[in-house]
Amino acid sequence: MFDEMDELAQDYDETVRTARESAGMSQEDLARKLNEKASLIRKIERGDTLPSDDVQRKLESALDVNLSAGGTADESEWSGGDSTGEYTLGDVVERKDS
């Protein structure tokens, strides 16, 4: 069930705000375009709420942005995992007795 879900980027709020401003839209304009409430856009841009999967897709399409955390430069810091991209508990746990 969770395999298809992408993790939201930490800076999703800044990405949405910057893209909206670059497009010359107000929060109300973006809300109308997405058929959502302006209060939701304000909360997303402040980082007070996470967009639902549906709203995330609409934002990405309307603003031509990617709000998923995967595929960023930060990924190169991770050295665990196998060739399939799957991680095990052993990849992320640090033992205290070592």
* Structure class: mainly alpha
In CATH, the homologous superfamily of the domain at 1-64 goes by the name lambda repressor-like DNA-binding domains
Question: What is the C-alpha radius of gyration, as a whole number of Å?
Answer: 17 Å
Task: Please write the CATH class name of the domain at 1-64.
Answer: Mainly Alpha
Ends distance: 35 Å
Beta percentage is under 5%
Provide the residue-averaged pLDDT: 81
Domain HTH cro/C1-type: 16-70
Keywords: DNA-binding
Protein name: HTH DNA-binding protein
Organism: Halosimplex carlsbadense 2-9-1
Write a structural description:
The chain has helices at residues 12-22, 27-34, 38-46, 53-63, 89-92. With 98 residues, the protein is an all-alpha fold. The protein has a domain at 1-64: lambda repressor-like DNA-binding domains (434 Repressor (Amino-terminal Domain), Orthogonal Bundle). The chain is elongated, with a radius of gyration of 17 Å. The N and C termini lie far apart (35 Å). Keywords: DNA-binding. GO terms for molecular function: DNA binding.
